[in-house]
Design a protein that fits this description.
single chain, mainly beta, 3 helices, disordered N terminus
């Protein structure tokens, strides 16, 4: 037993000596500290600039602070709400809020879409009411029927408002180089029903919206008939001079008097990375 123990001690001593000797070789250490994996973000912000019958909705100084007024004229009844800076939309942020339309009236908006990461963008549009709010004598004389208070879709205004949407370059007018960038056009009943539009998906042709880049959507409506008359490119005009459209309300009769058209517009941004074939309106498989 003693001999065995001595042998073990010798082996251990030799091993220790070998280890001590090995520390004299060259060595190098590389250290990477603070490695991070963090999820990115995708935030869509929207701003809007609008013109009504050639008057801009302008941020204006008042005695009480700032407010938005048509043409910058501060007076009761001249307030407007369809222009705002880039932000997350909240209750009360509407692209339309006009309550005294007359045939021949028109409005132009330019919607700005800003994302902080590459994204596909879709728009969901839904009409929530096309209501014949009341039946005036001129309406009935022109062939309208009595208003049904239980029906929110018995109105005719959606048959009289013509809309035009296009990819704009941010100057609020329809120009000659934009005639091939029309997104949708037609009567309100045709284009503002339950639908999802592709603003940017894998089939629109321009790729996703790049993070940090602004995409502009022009929108024009006429209470009557629209005739596009695009202005020359980049001449500095705005809708106070020429919108690029002519609006003619002479063929509108009285059946849409007091009618109310309401709707919701939802813009949705989806990450573009790893979704190269993304579609706003994917083809549903047949059963």
């Amino acid at each position: 037993m003693r001999k065995i123990l001595i042998s073990l001690l010798v082996v251990c001593a030799v091993g220790a000596a070998a280890f001590a000797a090995s520390t004299a070789f060259f060595s190098d250490t590389e250290t990477s500290t603070g490695n991070i994996l963090q999820a990115g973000a995708l935030d869509l912000k929207i701003d809007n600039t609008c013109y009504y019958n050639g008057q801009a909705c302008v941020l204006t100084e008042t005695n009480e602070g700032e407010g938005y007024f048509w043409g910058g004229i501060v007076k009761d009844g001249n307030e407007c709400s369809c222009t705002w800076r880039a932000k997350d939309l909240a209750a009360g942020d509407v692209f339309f809020d006009l309550r005294d339309l007359k045939p021949g009236d028109w409005e132009e908006d330019t919607i700005s879409l800003d994302v902080d990461n590459d994204a596909w963008v879709c728009a969901d549009i839904k009409t929530t009411a096309n209501d014949d709010s009341s039946s005036t004598e001129p309406e009935l004389e022109d062939g309208d029927v009595e208003e049904d208070p239980t029906n929110d879709f018995d109105g005719e205004l959606a048959d009289e408002l013509f809309f035009w949407f296009w990819y704009d370059d941010g100057d609020n007018v329809f120009e000659e180089h934009e005639v091939n960038g029309v997104i949708n056009r037609g009567l309100a009943k045709e284009v503002l029903g339950d639908a999802q539009w592709a603003i940017a998906d894998s089939q629109t042709g321009q790729g996703p919206i790049t993070g940090g880049k602004t995409v502009y959507i022009g929108k024009f409506f006429c209470y009557g008939d629209i005739t596009p008359d695009p202005v020359p490119d980049n001449e500095g005009v705005d809708p106070t001079d020429d919108s690029g459209f002519d609006c003619d309300g002479t063929e509108v009769n009285n059946v849409s008097q007091t009618d109310l058209l309401m709707g919701d517009i939802v813009f949705e941004a989806t990450q573009a990375r790893h979704q190269e074939e993304f579609l706003c309106n994917p083809i549903k498989p047949t059963e």
